[in-house]
Write a structure and sequence with these properties.
single chain; 563 residues; alpha/beta; seven-stranded parallel beta sheet; five-stranded antiparallel beta sheet; 16 helices; 13% strand; globular
Length: 563
């Protein structure tokens, strides 16, 4: 087997490969199970490299595969420089990277810098050490309020519900200090004012870069720096960003976070080509450019289209604004509709009213909380819109991020019994949130079997019977399938790469978007329901059947017009 360095040497040394890459997110525990234990693993990913190559992607992004108790689906990390034994070994990681690189596919790994797990050696050392120790100084420990410290330092809540502070028992058995956790209590926040934390993450970045990782996706990139002494009168006020000056919110998007990423950039630039990074930062569009700075991470997720309705005016405004921001800063735009944290867009677009990132309709009701009943979803319409939106997105300049299973047209799995759910948001916010398990259900590879080809002995989340009709093997044999559509779109997309220019054309009505890319490519999206006359030329691909040169409603087409 080639070494990681030898593997890296066989890949194309294009420093700008990420600018227009099609990146496929793999949630490892739900992708492919090689040993039949119900969990996807690294060998399972390696076995599916031919599938990924045939799909036509440029890179894979791996959600965390590190040792973890799975208190938050792997985002509670025990050891940042190892592989969860249930998912494989470091040697399995090397073999996977080698196979992907040989197939011409880059590798992006998730890094989780805001918090560790409570099983991390550092946190266990902190629990065993006294107040004021260097071990506790790596985390955010505070004395409690009240006569005996029995009250938390403040009344702030965590993202997953409940209080954001957890009290510990001191080594002598007495009630002690409190530690801060933005997410689950099993995810204590690191103190990024501590130089030791900085140095340890630089070591981690080099560790995976040396093993062949081409880039990093940075989880909660806007949450590392905090001011826990801020005077905030109520919980509601804390979550109103408009009450704070930009860059000065107590928890989110503080200006000083960018000094961390300037350090990281120096490490990335030690490699040839430089390692890439993309920030997961839910920030205002005007603040996103700082994360995407060439002196910082270089790219940041743009969730604007993900949060938009299927609406021409919203799409045009979002696209124009983000392309203008990218041009002004020298960054590359990013586009995404689905990931491991949101309801799949084939389902969102099929809901009775509107769509938001959590699956809420325009009436404010949450589809998941109403039971996630598939009968509430117009699956045919949702998939039709999802294909149209994806084809439009794949024609845009910038990076396209795809989520495993969307190429199969998978719907969200809403009907998961409470006893089978795993997401901590369900358990901590019961009756308020159902959680993200529905988009994390293991993929169907075959139409039959204990887990539809995912593994030999079932799957860690229950798969519905209707998965059989979405199986990859079924779609492989169907030239009109969603899988075939994605493959064709991704193959054609490579012909568009090069110039990042885009020119808008006057559309016939408000429900139509029409733009031109270099080479005479016209991209026409019909958000309305009436058929639309397409430009005269070669129809390269459409998300729905084109008859008589007319594009049906809720569809997108690529047309090459001769000059």
């Amino acid at each position: 087997m080639p070494t990681p360095a030898e593997t890296a040497a066989t890949t194309t040394h294009d420093a700008d490969w990420w600018r227009q890459a099609a990146v496929y997110q793999i949630y490892p525990r739900s992708f492919s199970d090689s040993n039949g234990d119900g969990l996807g693993d690294l060998k399972g990913i390696t076995s599916r490299v031919p599938y990924l190559k045939a799909l036509g992607i440029d890179a894979v992004w791996l959600s965390p595969f590190y040792p973890s108790a799975l208190a938050d689906g792997g985002y509670d990390v025990d050891d940042y420089r190892n592989v969860d034994p249930r998912l494989g070994t470091l040697e399995d990681f090397d073999e996977m990277v080698a196979a992907l690189h040989e197939a011409g596919i880059k590798v992006i790994v998730d890094i989780v810098p805001n918090h560790t797990s409570d099983r991390h050696v550092w946190f266990q050392e902190a629990l065993a050490s006294p107040k004021g120790s260097a071990a506790r100084g790596r985390y955010i420990f505070r004395d409690g309020l009240g006569e005996n410290g029995e009250l938390p330092p403040n009344a702030w809540t965590s993202i997953f519900g409940g209080g954001a502070w957890e009290r510990i028992t001191e080594p002598d058995g007495t009630p002690g200090q409190w530690y801060f956790h933005l997410f689950a209590k099993e995810q204590p926040d690191l103190d990024w004012d501590n130089p030791e934390v900085h140095e340890d993450f630089l070591t981690t970045l080099r560790f995976w870069s040396d093993r062949g990782a081409d880039g990093f996706r940075v989880d909660v990139a806007h949450g590392l720096k905090k001011d826990l002494n801020a005077e905030v009168a109520s919980l509601d006020l804390l979550h109103r960003a408009d009450l704070f000056r930009e860059g000065e919110h107590p928890l989110w998007d503080r200006d000083e976070v960018h000094s961390i990423y300037a350090e990281w950039r120096k490490v990335f630039n030690e490699y040839n080509p430089p390692r890439t990074a993309v920030a997961e930062a839910w920030v205002h569009a005007d603040r996103r450019a700082m994360y995407a700075s060439p002196e910082g991470l270089g790219q940041a997720f743009n969730f604007d289209l993900l949060e938009a309705d299927f609406d021409a005016e919203q799409f045009r405004r979002i696209i124009a604004k983000n392309l203008a921001e990218a041009a002004a800063t020298g960054a590359s735009s990013t586009w995404v509709f689905s990931n491991h944290d949101v309801v799949r867009h084939a389902t969102r677009y099929g809901l009775p009213k509107g769509s938001g990132r959590g699956g809420k309709g325009a009436d404010g009701k949450d589809w998941l909380l109403e039971g996630g009943d598939p009968a509430q979803v117009d699956a045919e319409r949702g998939l039709r819109r999802a294909r149209a939106a994806t084809l439009l997105m794949l024609a845009l300049p910038g990076s396209a991020y795809l989520y495993q299973g969307e190429e199969l047209g998978l719907q969200e799995v809403g009907e998961i019994p409470d006893a089978d759910r795993q997401d901590p948001t369900f358990f901590r916010n019961k009756g308020v949130e159902v959680g993200r398990d529905g988009c994390r259900v293991p993929l169907p590879w075959e139409a039959e079997g204990a887990s539809f080809g995912f593994g030999a002995n079932g799957a860690h989340l229950p798969q519905p019977a209707w998965f059989a009709g979405y199986a990859a093997s079924v779609q492989e044999a169907d030239a009109g399938s969603t899988l075939a559509f994605y493959r064709r779109a991704l193959a054609l997309r490579h012909e568009l790469q090069g110039s990042e220019s885009l020119g808008w054309q006057d559309a016939s009505d408000d429900d139509v978007l029409h733009f031109v890319r270099p080479g005479g490519w016209h991209v026409v999206a019909n958000f309305g329901t009436a058929p639309l006359e397409l430009p005269a030329g070669e129809i390269l691909l459409a998300s729905a059947d084109v008859e008589g040169g007319k594009l049906p409603g809720e569809a997108t087409a690529w047309v090459r017009v001769a000059r």
